[in-house]
Amino acid sequence: MNWKTVFNPFERFNEKQLLLTGILAVILSIATGYWTGTTFTSIYKISDAENASFKIIAITTLLSFMAAIAILFILGKILNNKTRIIDIINTVLISQLVLILFQCIGKMPYIRLAGKNLIKYESAPSGTFPFTDFLIMISMTCFSIITLVYSITLFYNGFKTATNIKKWQHIVLFCIVSLVSILACQIVINKII
C-alpha cells in the first residue's frame, strides 16, 4: 500500500469493498453516537445529543449522510452524466469514517478536565500555568486538524474519482455546493434534535 492508496482508496478498492466499509462506518457512527451522546447533524458537524434516544441519533446521522449523498449525486450528474450513485455513497461514507474518532474524544475524561483547567486558569490566572493540560489541548487540536484535513481529502478525491472532474470551475462548484449543503443540513437537522 502506498500514499496514493491512503489518500484515494477509491482508485484502489472496488465499490463493493468500499460500500461494505462505508455501511460498517455508519453502524459504528450511530453506535458510537449513542454511547457518547453525539450525532452527525451534517457531514463534518458532530453535535451533542445528550439524553437522545438511539432512534433520534440514528435518524439524524442517516439524514445527514443521505442529504450529502443526494446533493453530491445531483451535482455529479450535472458535471458528468456517467456518475454512479454507488460511487457517491462510497465517497460520503468513507470520508466520514475517520470522524468517528471525534465522537470518542469527547468521552475521554482527561481531555474534558484539561479543557476545564485551562478555562479556569484563563479566567483567574493564579498559581502555576497548567502546562500538561495545555499540551493535551494543543495535541488534541493538532490531531483534530490532521483528521479533518484527511477526511476532506478523502471527500474531494472520492468525488473527483466518481465524476472525473478536471476543470477548476467544477472543483470550485464542488466546494461551494458542499459548503452550502453542510450548512443547510445543520440548520434543518438541529431543529429535529
Overall geometry: globular
User: What is the string of helix and strand elements?
Assistant: HHHEEHHHHHH
Q: What structural category do the secondary elements indicate?
A: mainly alpha
Determine the N-to-C terminus distance.
41 Å
Q: Cα-atom Rg, whole angstroms?
A: 19 Å
Helices, by number, come to 9
How much helix, percentage-wise, in residues? over 70%
Quaternary state of the chains: single chain
**Structural domain count:** 1
Q: Which strand order spans the largest sheet, edge to edge or round the barrel?
A: 1-2
What does this structure look like?
Helix content is 77%, strand content 5%. The longest helix is centred in the last third of the chain and has 33 residues, at 131-163. The chain has one domain (12-192). Helix 3 (15-36) packs across helix 5 and helix 4 (54-79) runs antiparallel to helix 9 (168-192). The chain has 193 residues and is mainly alpha-helical. A hairpin with a 2-residue loop joins strand 1 and strand 2 (45-48). A two-stranded antiparallel ribbon has the order 1-2. The chain is globular and about 65 Å long. The chain is built from nine helices and two strands; from the N terminus they run αααββαααααα. The chain has helices at residues 3-7, 9-12, 15-36, 54-79, 85-97, 100-105, 109-123, 131-163, 168-192; strands spanning 38-42, 45-48.
